[in-house]
Amino acid sequence: MMFDDTQHNACEKCRDLMSGFLDDELEAAEASMIREHLSACGECADLCAELSAILEFCGEEPSEAVADAAPPNADAMWKRINNVLEAEIKAPPPSLPETRRTWGLSFFQVSAALACVAIVSSLLTFVAIRNYNAEPDTVMVTRTVQQPGIVDRVLIRFGFAESPAEKLERRLRERQAAIDYWNAKVQVRRMQWDRTTREAFDRNLRAIDESLFEYTNILQSDPEDQLSEEMLDAVLNDKMNLLRDFAAL
Amino acid sequence: MKFGGHLISAVIAGKATILMSVVFFFALSAAEITAQKRFSRTFPAGQNVRLQLMNRTGTVTVEGWNRPEVSITASLESPAANIDPQTVGGTIVINLVKDNAGRNEVGNVNFTIRVPFTAMVDIETKIGNLNVTNVRGGLVRAYISSEGDITLTNIGASAVSAENVIGDIFFDGEIVDGGSYRFSSTRGNINIRIPVTASFRFVATAPSTRNISLGAFVNPNTNYLGDGRRVVGRMGDGSATLSVTNQRGSISFLRR
After folding, report:
1. Contact B107, B79 (CB under 8 A)
2. Would the CB atoms of B186 and A208 count as touching at under 8 Å?
3. What is the pLDDT of residues B101-128, one digit of tens each?
4. Which of B225, B184, B183, B178 is nearest to B199 (CA)?
5. For residues B44 and B50, what is the distance between their CA atoms, to the nearest angstrom?
6. For residue A142, is pLDDT > 70?
7. Can you give the residue ranges of every domain in chain B?
8. Please, which pLDDT band fits residue A162 given cuts at 50, 70 and 90?
9. Which of A16, A123, A198, B127 is the most exposed place for a label (fewest CB within 10 A)?
10. Of A193, A231, A242, Cβ closest to residue B145
């Protein structure tokens, strides 16, 4: 028995067994526990008293008033009621009418929401058009030091666009990964090359690395130098192409 | 007699030496002749034929001619490379890299190829010079993976691209309206010889040397940017685009 768990559980258990208790159907130990609980719990004691009164009332002979109010054939009526209830239980439940949720927003709230949607969609459209129209690296660039504009700064701040430093870093990472990949292939192949090929490869790689070194240095001192950034990009591309082309030999 | 005997011996010894030298010379020549192989093939071709050549090492020369055929001749150093030209659609493809994949040593292959004037030419090599002359088809592309000079003369193509790492680039030709021209090198000199009446927008970039000479092409529409590392400008209505980049060398525009 779980009477010791908590007060709540004890009350629940007591109410479950209360009917049996009042009908005197419980075992002695259970009845004793119920009694004990009723002596301690006023709420359950009240409930028990009410239930006891109802049972007492039901157990008495029907009064005249009640007898007058009763139908002439009570059994038949109860059967009909029972039949109706059974039929309702078997029948599929009727579909509930759709409940319409009303938001109850004010005009101001609706306007503010629409304005937010308009701003966000405009921003997204702007970003999309910008990306679509973005000029490739090789296209003529007339500025050598490019500062992000106000719109760019806003986009960067809200995470809709990369900052120049992030963009450069990402590009360098991608290029470096490709360079590492092809370099590993070249290292495997280069022992098979003849001396002339090896020397030519090394010479050209050195020439590219010199430029790479130069632009990296410039960008360290002036990260906003777009021309050097563009050249660094081009040189990394050249290096990757050299490695890729010689990896095929 | 004794003196005469010595004389005879000396003469015989001299003759023997000469004879040996002659034999040795001819033996060497024969060895050289056997080391050099030649390849020759001719394909019938339409006016819009496209030549696509990927060489490993060696010089490639492509010349336009007034015949509806493509003539390929090649001299192969020992150990000789495999050459297996293929015709795919309207394109003649020679891919020495693929045809000799896995072969450790392949000697130089020097090509001389003649194509119709209006052919499209797309040639590349890992090491070696590329020359194209008298071609006015839609495309001329010359790409050297590493070192070698690129010489493009009397070109009338609307799309021209030349790229190398170490070596000079020389372009001599027309600038076609709406065309696209791109020249790029890491270390070398780039010389562009074009008509002064040509109409194009251009960007010339020489970041290390800042040695950009516009010659007769200086006009009020030119701007020096980035402390002279780049020059941009426009000639005429600027319908063509010209991009020249030389990382560690000079750029010169010459009047044609």
Report:
1. yes
2. yes
3. 877 778 899 999 999 999 999 999 999 9
4. B178
5. 12
6. no
7. 33-255
8. confident
9. A16
10. A242
Average pLDDT over all residues of chain A: 77
Q: Is the ipTM of this complex over 0.90?
A: no
Average pLDDT over residues A49-67: 63
Instruction: Tell me the C-alpha distance between B209 and B222, whole Å.
Output: 19
Any residues with CB less than 8 A from the CB of B208 and at least 6 apart, and which?
A211, A214, B247, B248, B249
- In sequence order, which ranges of chain B are alpha helices (DSSP H)? 2-35, 96-99
Residues 6+ apart with CB under 8 A from B245: A231, A234, B183, B184, B185, B204, B205, B206
Lookup: tokens for A203: 């010479």
pTM for the whole thing? 0.65
List residues in chain A touching B: CB distance below 8 A.
138, 140-145, 192-194, 196-197, 200-201, 203-204, 207-208, 210-211, 214-215, 225, 227-228, 231, 234-235, 238, 241-242, 245-246, 248-249
